[in-house]
Write a structure and sequence with these properties.
With 323 residues, the protein is of the alpha/beta class. The chain is 38% helix and 18% strand. Bound molecules: ligand PBG. Ligand PBG binds next to helix 6.
């Protein structure tokens, strides 16, 4: 008989044997930015999460930095009247995100800014690329994603994060960035991004629900065992610096296998809006003990192999519960 209980005798002994720990630097905190001034707009399906205008964002980022979080991920939310077929507001040189990056960098030069590169928040049809006969056209979307990433890079983004799931998007962006060798912007590829119902609350937050159909012709089918790993390999070959598995909790197997196959590549996982909403709702109903389930879920993501976790819980965790 092996006496495993010797590892669990009391808190000090358990702490000694624990080999997975969470640090503020493991977290990437997502932000929704909207046009305007002075507003903080709560997102009903994501209690505790808001949309900020560039000025109120500055204040909130101050607190984020003070908590020790030095990496943020930006999403732009624009008025419906500014959306068009091509998502032009996404790749203009004075887009909402371009202006936001500049404001943030001026005030917090050490902040690491990652930007989401996708058209769905900017197209009037809500799809992630250009439409052709009611289908999302891969190759004509690529230059637009490349231009969007390039504008973010010029403004000072540290990472661009293509999330449209177009084939070849990383290569298109890498080539465009390489045209200006002084740019040091890296690529965090949303490599294994599944067509997930767990994105529901995000689409309310970002007003990016597709006006028809779904995203299953470009985001991954979760009924596949190996495609996620093939997507990661392809992105790395195309020039991605960091890779991502998304969502997180239902895809721990993919995180683990991805990390095993590419141990030297930073692995990011995204605990998405639906995962957050699910834990929040259960906590609000007093069905679950929130700090404990949040801790357990974040540790699980890290134990699976994630080096960094994008989570809406990052601030709350560090502020209230990190012992
Ligand atoms: C943009 C994008 C989405 C998310 C991140 N980037 C929405 C989607 O693909 O529908 C989801 C993030 C979340 O649910 O928290 N394409």
């Amino acid at each position: 008989m092996k006496r495993f209980r010797q590892y669990r005798t009391n808190a000090a002994v358990r702490d000694k044997y624990a080999d997975i720990h969470l640090n503020a630097q493991d977290f990437i905190y997502p932000y929704f930015v909207e046009e305007g001034e002075g507003n903080v707009t709560p997102i009903p399906t994501m209690p505790g999460i808001n949309r900020y205008t560039p000025d109120t964002l500055l204040d909130d980022v101050k607190e984020t930095l003070e908590l020790g979080i030095n990496k943020i991920l930006l999403f732009g939310v624009i008025p419906t009247s500014e959306k068009d077929e091509q998502g032009s507001a996404a790749y203009s040189d004075h887009s909402l995100i371009v202006r936001t990056i500049k404001t943030l960098k001026e005030k917090y030069p050490a902040l690491i800014i990652i930007t989401d590169v996708c058209l769905c928040e900017y197209t009037n049809h809500g799809h992630c690329g250009l439409l052709h006969d009611h289908d999302v056209d891969n190759d004509t979307t690529l230059p637009l994603l490349a231009e969007m990433a390039y504008q973010h890079a010029l403004a000072g983004a540290d990472f661009v994060a293509p999330s449209a799931m177009m084939d070849g998007q990383v290569e298109a962006i890498r080539k465009k960035l390489n045209e200006t060798p002084s740019l040091k912007t890296k690529i965090l590829a949303y490599s294994a991004k599944y067509a997930s119902a767990f994105y529901g609350p995000f689409r309310d937050a970002a007003e990016s629900t597709p006006s028809f159909g779904d995203r299953k012709s470009y985001q991954m089918d979760f009924r596949t065992r190996n495609q996620g790993l093939e997507e990661i390999a392809a992105d790395l070959e195309e020039g991605a610096d960091w890779t991502m598995v998304k969502p997180a909790m239902p895809y721990l197997d993919i995180i683990a296998r991805g990390k095993e196959q590419f141990p030297d590549i930073p692995m990011v996982s995204y605990q998405v809006s639906g995962e957050y909403a699910m834990l929040k709702a259960a906590a609000q109903a007093q069905f679950l003990d929130e700090p404990r389930v949040v801790y357990e879920s974040l540790i699980a993501i890290k134990r699976a192999g994630a080096d960094y976790i994008i989570t809406y819980y990052a601030k709350e965790w560090l502020k209230k519960w990190n012992q």
